[in-house]
Design goal:
The protein has a 4-stranded antiparallel sheet with strand order 3-4-5-6, covered by helices on one side. The protein has a two-stranded antiparallel ribbon with strand order 1-2. Strands 7-8 form a two-stranded antiparallel sheet. It has 159 residues and is α+β, with helices and mostly antiparallel strands. The longest helix is centred in the first third of the chain and has 24 residues. The chain is elongated and about 100 Å long. The protein is built from 2 helices and 8 strands.
């Protein structure tokens, strides 16, 4: 430390000759209080800021489609909007390796597939992945045979 005329410090470290400073590098109580207050404010407002941001959709862009390879299988899905309904109330058209997979919505809002109808999934993508997991590596979805499917008709039952 260099002492100039009149006993004042010249060229010393900033804050070294200031009264009230206990030691160089140690924060004061006021600085500690400010830091604590800033941390509390950040913790209080973090959930508000996080809730105000749009969340990335797990099902793809805007949650209306997905197209990916999962466990070596090509899975695709697209939400087809239904006329006169809300955007999320459309019908999902899903394929696994080009073959259709039927998804259904449960009353609680979760999804199930016809391959894995005992489990509920939060999104159509998760339900499709669950179906792929359930099918295993050697199995494929069957092609629907609409000409063989019918409702009612003569089954040889007489009333």
């Amino acid at each position: 430390m260099v002492v100039g005329i009149g006993g004042a410090a010249v060229g010393a470290e900033p804050g070294a000759g200031q009264p009230g400073r206990a030691g160089a590098g140690r924060p004061t109580r006021r600085e500690l209080t400010r830091g604590l207050f800033a941390s509390v404010v950040a913790l209080v407002f973090a959930p508000v800021v996080a809730a105000s941001r749009p969340s990335p959709a797990a099902d793809g862009p805007a949650g209306t489609s997905f197209d990916e390879t999962y466990r070596g299988r090509r899975i695709r899905g697209a939400l087809l909007p239904a006329a006169g309904r809300a955007v999320d109330e459309g019908e999902w058209q899903v394929t696994v390796d080009g073959r259709p997979l039927h998804l259904m919505r449960r009353a609680d809002g979760s999804w199930l597939s016809m391959v894995d109808h005992y489990s509920s999934y939060p999104t159509p993508l998760a339900a499709t992945r669950g179906a792929v997991d359930e099918m295993g590596p050697g199995q494929r979805l069957r092609d629907p045979a609409p000409e063989r499917m019918h409702m009612g008709g003569d089954h040889g039952v007489r009333a």
